[in-house]
Amino acid sequence: MTSLLLRPWRQSDGGALAAAYRASSDLDRRLDPDAETPAGAERVVGEDLGWDSQTACNLAIVADGTAVGNVGLSRIDPRHGTAWTYYWLAAPARGRGLAARATATLAHWAAEELQLHRLELGHRTNNPASCRVARSAGFAAEGIQRDKLHYDGERFDVEIHARLATDPVPALQLLELRLP
Question: Which ranges carry the N-acetyltransferase domain (predicted)?
Fold first, then answer.
């Protein structure tokens, strides 16, 4: 991957979203099952992956012109300066540090532009790759929420991480950010 950037999702990304969904068996827990088809993925882009810096910000992680993942904020609370952070990558784009760079870029932007002081995220404790992303992006582990998630009849513990605007900036090259 040579050209990397973050930008809001576009309806034209539906095909890339459908391809990411089909290539990544774990995305069925994060995305609407309709994302498997191009038409359903276009609906998911329009309804679930929107951009509104006041409530929820979703950015496509774009590699060489194709959306290969998402990084976003939700539960933005300007009063307390907090938000929930999340990310995912299509399986073929994993293992190169792209999710950590995207998450660090979003965290930097959220602190600078939205004046958010605390960003939180969580991952299943049985997902060490997601933990590496969080730590690499400068999110410190804070604790475990027992039996937080329920998938396919099974309960999962979640490790919570947070990054403060006053925390040291991770030594990662930030991605280009193109906003509306």
Answer: 4-165
For the chain, how many residues are written? 180
What letter represents residue 120's amino acid? E
Which residues 6+ apart lie within 8 Å of 178 measured at CB?
Answer: 5, 6, 7
Which residue, chain included where needed, has tokens 């009849």?
A: 153
Give the Cα separation of 61 and 38 in Å (integer): 18
- Read off the tokens for 95: 């293992």
Tell me the whole-structure pTM to 2 decimals. 0.93
Could you give the angle at which helices 98-113 and 128-136 cross, rounded to 10 degrees?
40
CA distances from 147 to 130, 167, 175 (A): 18, 29, 34
Share in percent of the chain as helix, strand, coil (round to 5): 35, 35, 30
Return all residues near 152 (Cβ < 8 A) that are at least 6 apart. Answer: none
Task: Find out whether 87 and 102 touch, Cβ atoms under 8 Å.
Answer: yes
**Residue 147 burial (10 A CB sphere; 0-12, 13-18, 19+):** exposed
Distance in angstroms (rounded) separating the CA atoms of residues 168 and 140: 11
* Separation of alpha carbons 172 and 180, rounded Å: 24
- Decide the pairing of beta strands 56-63 and 4-8: antiparallel
Q: For residue 124, give both structure tokens.
A: 């299943």
